[in-house]
Specification:
The complex is a heterodimer of chains A (about 120) and B (about 120).
Chain A lengths: L3 E4 L2 E5 L4 E7 L5 E7 L5 E8 L4 E4 L2 E6 L4 E6 L8 E10 L6 E5 L3 E6 L1
Parallel strand pairs in A: 2-11
Antiparallel strand pairs in A: 1-3, 3-8, 4-5, 4-9, 6-7, 7-8, 9-10, 9-11
Chain B lengths: L3 E4 L2 E4 L4 E8 L5 E7 L6 E7 L2 E5 L6 E7 L2 E7 L7 E8 L11 E2 L3 E5 L1
Parallel strand pairs in B: 2-11
Antiparallel strand pairs in B: 1-3, 3-8, 4-5, 4-9, 5-6, 7-8, 9-10, 9-11
Classes of the chains: A mainly beta (about 120), B mainly beta (about 120).
Chain lengths: ~120, ~120
C-alpha cells in the first residue's frame, strides 16, 4: 500500500520562484526522507527529518514535518532550471513481519523549472 | 567514497537468458537494497540485506534471486524473466537503522533492463 502521497503530481514554475511540494502518509513513522531523481537516473537523498523534529534546512531546501497531521512539505527557494526533476517523499514502516523497517516511496512530484 | 556503482548500465535479454546485475559500495554500509522502478512510478522495494543476510523479501517472484557475497557487494540473478520485468533496477545502501527506522539511502545509477 502507498505510504506517502505527494501533492501536486506535477508543478511548473519559472526560475527564481519558490516550489512547494507536500507529502501525506498514513501510519506512524520514525523518519521521513525526501529524494530527488533526474530523468532515468538514480535517486539522490536530500533531507531526512526525524519524527521528533518539526523543521529542517539544507541550503535552499526547507522541510517541515507535522506528525499530528501526518504530513510533510518540501520548499525549494529561488528555484533554478537545474532543479527540474522528480521529487519523492519516503517514509519508513515495518515490513509484514513487523521486525524490519523499509522505505516506502510516494508517487512523486514532477517539478519543471522554466528558464 | 560515497558512491554506489551498478553494472551493467543497460541490459537486453531474452526470456530464456540468465544474467546478473551487480552493485558495489565502499561506504561501510551494512544494509543493501534492490528496488524496481517502472517509468513514471516510484521505486518499489524488492529485497533488503542486513549484515549480509536477507532480511526482507517483498514477495518477489523466484525468477529474481538476490545474493550478497560480502558486505560490499550485492548481486541480482535473473532467469526466465518476462517482458513485464523490463524496468530500471536500482541498488542502494545505508547504515542499518538502530532501534528501528531506515537511515539515509545512497542509490546507484541503476541498470535499465529490457526483456524481449
Amino acid at each position: 500500500s502507498q505510504q506517502g502521497e505527494e501533492d501536486p503530481q506535477a508543478l511548473s514554475i519559472q526560475e527564481g520562484e519558490n516550489a512547494t511540494m507536500n507529502c501525506s502518509y498514513k501510519t506512524s513513522i520514525n523518519n521521513l526522507q525526501w529524494y530527488r531523481q533526474n530523468s532515468g537516473r538514480g535517486l539522490v537523498h536530500l533531507i531526512l527529518i526525524r519524527s521528533n523534529e518539526r523543521e529542517k534546512h539544507s541550503g535552499r531546501l526547507r522541510v517541515t514535518l507535522d506528525t499530528s497531521k501526518k504530513s510533510s512539505s518540501l520548499l525549494i527557494t529561488a528555484s533554478r532550471a537545474a532543479d527540474t526533476a522528480s521529487y519523492f517523499c519516503a517514509t519508513d514502516a515495518p515490513d509484514s513481519g513487523g521486525s524490519n523497517y523499509k522505505l516506502t516511496f510516494g508517487k512523486g512530484t514532477l517539478l519543471t523549472v522554466n528558464p | 567514497d560515497t558512491e554506489v556503482t551498478q553494472t551493467p548500465k543497460h541490459l537486453v535479454m531474452g526470456m530464456t537468458n540468465k544474467k546478473s546485475l551487480k552493485c558495489e559500495q565502499h561506504m561501510g554500509h551494512r544494509a543493501m537494497y534492490w528496488y524496481k522502478q517502472k517509468a513514471k512510478k516510484p521505486p518499489e522495494l524488492m529485497f533488503v540485506y542486513s549484515y549480509e543476510k536477507l532480511s526482507i523479501n517483498e514477495s518477489v517472484p523466484s525468477r529474481f534471486s538476490p545474493e550478497c557475497p560480502n558486505s560490499s557487494l550485492l548481486n541480482l540473478h535473473l532467469h526466465a524473466l518476462q517482458p513485464e520485468d523490463s524496468a530500471l533496477y536500482l541498488c542502494a545502501s545505508s547504515h542499518w537503522g538502530l532501534a528501528g527506522g531506515v537511515e539515509t539511502q545512497y542509490f546507484g545509477p541503476g541498470t535499465r533492463l529490457l526483456v524481449l
